[in-house]
Amino acid sequence: MKKLAALLFFLVVSPETIAQQNYFPGVETVALHFYSTYNITQYENKALHKFEKRVDGWHVAFFGYEDIQKVKADYLIWSASQSKYQALFLPLATPEDSANQAGLIASDFQGVDTFYYNHFPYYGYRGWFNDVISLLSSQKQLNDTLMYALGRAYSEYASCLLYDNLQTALPGMMIRTKDGPDALTTQQLEVYLKNRNAAIECFKKTNALNPAFETLIGSIYMKYCTEQMVKFYDLLVFQNENIAMRELPDNLFSAFTISMAKNFLMTCDSNAVVFTNGDMDSYPLWYVQARFNYRRDIFVANLSLMNTAYYLNFLRVKCFDAQPLSFSFLQSEYNKDQLRYAYIEENSDSFIDISNLKINLHEIEAQSNLKNYIFSNNAFSMSADQYQKALSAEKHYYSDARFDDTIKWIFSGRYILQSHIFLLDFIGQNKWQRPVYFTSTCGEGNMAGLDHYLFADGLNYQVAPYYHEDLNTPALKNSDKLYNQLMHQFTYDVSDELSIGEKLFVSCYINLFTNLSPQLLYENKKDKAVEVMDKCLLIFNNDMVPYDAGLYKIMSNYAEAGMKDKARALYKQILYNLENKNTVNAESKLRGSANYKYEIESLHAFAKDQKWE
Questions:
Q1: Nearest 5°: CA angle at 291, between 288 and 296?
Q2: Cβ contacts of residue 231 below 8 Å, gap of 6+?
Q3: Distance between CA 63 and CA 356 in Å, rounded?
Q4: What is the pTM of this model?
Q5: In the sheet where 84-85 sits, what is the strand order?
Q6: Taking a C-beta distance cutoff of 8 angstroms, is the pair 370, 338 a contact?
Q7: Do strands 361-364 and 57-64 pair parallel, antiparallel, or not at all (unpaired)?
Q8: d(CA 260, CA 492)
Q9: Of 493, 548, 544, 485, residue with least CA distance to 512
Q10: Are 223 and 203 in contact (CB under 8 A)?
Q11: d(Cα 214, Cα 152) in Å, to the nearest integer?
Q12: What residue spans of 446-499 are helical by DSSP H?
C-alpha cells in the first residue's frame, strides 16, 4: 500500500522554476557543441550514447553494447545553474574530427526525440516524467505546449506501471507482476487509471487551449483519441475485455478516420490476420472493432508491439471474435526478453524453411547475461502446397504473376528483430490457412522481405505464393475487385476539414487510384480508368491536399486515355503548386517534396512531349 501511495506523490514548484526552462539551449545546439568540441570516435564501437535534458542541465550518457540498461559514464555538458557549457574530461576534437562527426547530428535527431527534447522541460532519461510532473502538475495556468508535456509525462508514467517499452521506467515502479488477463489487483488498476486518465485530461485541455496544436501523430484531438485507445488496449491485454469496454468512450476519432479504419478492414477475407506498425493504422482499427462491432473476426496485430514478450503472449489468446495466432516458440523462450533480435549471416547457398524456423535459430556466446542468437542464412523459403488446398479459389486473381510451389526470398540486414522473427514464425506455422495482410502504411522494411509476394488488396497488401518481378510496378490482386472497392464499397468521409495527419493518410487512397488506372488502361478498360481518375480528383481535390508529383501518373494516364484537356488542366495545377510551393505548403501546413526542382523539370519534359510548350 505504501508503494502505491508513493506512486501518486509529486513535488510542488514555483512558476519561476518553469520560466528557467526556456533558457535551456535546443538539443541540436547542444549536440553541435558536443560533436565539434570532443572526439568520441574511440567510443563508438564500445558504447552507445544519448543526450539527456535533466533538471540540472544537459547530460550525455554512455551505455555499453553488452548491457544497454547500464550507464558506463555520464557527463554534464551544459549547466542550468551556470547557464554555460562545462569542460569535460574527453579527448578534444580536431577540425577533421568535427567534420567526421557532423553526420551524427543528422542521424541522432530526427523525428520523435527532437520534438520531445525541444518541447518538454525535461526528457530522455529514466524517470523524466517524474521531474516534468513535479514541475508542472501544481500550476494552474499552463500554455498548450506545457499542458501537452504534462500529458505526455502522465502517459509515460502510466505506461511504465505496466511495461518499460521505451526504457524510461525507474527501478521497482512496475506494479504488474504477471501478464494478463486479470494481471492487476483492484488497487493497482486504480493507480494505473488515475495516471492514464490524468494524461487524457491534459490532452483534452490542450485541445481546448489550441485545437490546432500539432503532435507527432497529428492533431491534439487525434492524440486525445489515441490515448483513450492506449488505455483501452492496456486493459484488454492486462485485465479483460469487460473492463476495457467500460472505459472506452463513444465518438472517438473523426469521421474520416473512422471511414478509413473500416476501409482497411472491409477488404480482408474472413478470419484474416492484419499486421500494422504504427498508431494510426492500429488504434482506429481496434476502435471500430470494439465500438462498432465491425469485422471482429480479424486479428489486428501491431508489429512494433511484437518486440515485447507481454504482447506476444496476448497474441496467443482470442481477441474479440478473432482466433489467436500460433507460434512454435514456447513462452519460456522469450518471456524474459531474451529473444530481442538475432544476427543473420549473409549466406544464401541454402534456404531456411520458416515452418521450421525455431530449429534454425542458434544460440551464440554473449558478453552479458542476455542471450544472443543467429540465423546461419539470410535466405528463407516456404512451401505453397497448403495454399492450393486452403485458398485455391483465389488463384485466378494473380494471372499476371508466376505461381511458385515454394516461395523464396532474401532478408536484407545484419540482424532481424524479435517482431519479424515471430512474424515469419507465424506465417510458417499458419501454412496459408488464414489470409495474411500488411497495411499499406506499414512502410518498407517492415514486411520481412516478402515484397515480391505482396499484392495490393484495398488498403492492404496480401501475402500470396505468386511472384512478381518489378517492384516499381504495383502488383494488384485483382483490378476488377479494386475498382469495385474504390468506386462502390469504400466510404470517403471528408466532410470536415482534415488535420495534417489525416492529410498525410490521403496519399494511401491516391496511391490506390493512381496504381489502378494504368492497370485498367493496360487491360483495355479505358472508360473505367477514366472513371477512377475522375473520382480520385473529385474526392481528394486540390483545396484539400495540394496536387503534387504523386498525381503524375494520373496526368499521364489521362493523356494516354485521350483526355488531353483533363491531363493539361492537372499539369497546370501541379506545376503551379510546385512553383509556388512555399505559399501552397504554408496554407495546407504540409511540408511538400524536397525534390521539387526535379519534379518541375519532369513536368516540363512531359509537356514538351505533349507539345504543350
A1: 60
A2: 158, 193, 196, 197, 200, 247
A3: 36
A4: 0.90
A5: 47-54, 57-64, 67-79, 84-85
A6: yes
A7: unpaired
A8: 7
A9: 485
A10: yes
A11: 14
A12: 479-484
pLDDT in tens, 537-569: 999 999 888 898 889 999 999 999 999 999 999
Q: What span, in angstroms and rounded, lies between the C-alpha atoms of 236 and 322?
A: 14
Q: Where are the alpha helices (DSSP H) in 123-219?
A: 128-136, 144-160, 186-209
State how far the Cα of 173 lies from the Cα of 162, in Å rounded to an integer: 9
User: Residue 47: helix, strand or coil by DSSP?
Assistant: strand
The cell for 321 is 471474435
Q: What is the reported pLDDT for 8?
A: 38
pLDDT on residue 384 = 92
Q: What CA–CA distances, in Å, run from 66 to 339, 353, 402?
A: 14, 31, 45
* Cell numbers at 198, concatenated: 490524468
Closest CA to 483 of 453, 460, 515: 515
According to the model, what pLDDT value does residue 497 have?
Answer: 81
Output the nine-digit C-alpha cell for 38: 570532443
Q: List the grid coordinates of 518.
A: 494504368
Instruction: Please enumerate in sequence order all residues whose Cβ is within 8 A of that of 152, keeping only pairs 6 or more positions apart, or say none.
Output: 116, 120, 129, 132, 199
Indicate whether 520 pLDDT > 50: yes
Query: Three cell numbers at 522?
Result: 493496360
Residue 16 has pLDDT above 50, yes or no: no
The helix-helix angle for 564-579 and 526-539 (nearest 10°) equals: 30
Give the Å distances, CA to CA, from 34 to 11, 410, 472, 514, 573.
32, 40, 42, 47, 46
Closest C-alpha to 132, from 76, 198, 210, 75:
198
The CA distance from 23 to 7, in Å, is 30
Q: What length does the chain have? A: 613
Amino acid at the residue 213: F
pLDDT digits (tens, 9 = 90+) for 224-268: 999 999 999 999 999 999 999 999 999 999 999 999 999 999 999
What is the pLDDT, as a whole number, of residue 227? 98
Q: Cell 495474411 identifies what position?
A: 436
Residue with cell 493512381: 514
User: Could you write out the DSSP letters of every residue in 217-249?
Assistant: TEEHHHHHHHHHHHHHHHHHHHT-HHHHHHHPP
Cα(365)–Cα(192) distance, rounded to whole angstroms? 39
Compute CA distances 470 → 423, 473, 478, whole Å.
24, 6, 17
- Render pLDDT for 436-465 as a digit per residue (tens, 0 to 9): 999 999 887 889 999 999 999 999 999 999
Angle at 291 between CA 288 and CA 297, to 5 degrees: 60
Residue 260, all three cell numbers: 478509413
- Worst-scoring range by mean pLDDT, 280-289, 383-392, 404-413? 383-392
C-alpha cell at 427: 506465417
Dist CA 570 CA 580 (whole Å): 15
The pLDDT of residue 129 is above 70: yes
Which runs of consecutive H residues, i.e. helices, occur in 239-308? 241-247, 255-266, 283-291
The pLDDT of residue 111 is 54
Give the model's confidence band at 6: pLDDT under 50 very low, under 70 low, under 90 confident, else very high.
very low
Using only C-alpha atoms, the chain has a radius of gyration, in whole angstroms, of: 26
Query: Among 590, 512, 600, 528, which Cα is nearest to 561's?
Result: 528
Which residue type is seen at 46? K
The distance in angstroms from the start CA to the end CA of the chain is 79
Instruction: Check: CB of residue 234 under 8 Å from CB of residue 196.
Output: yes
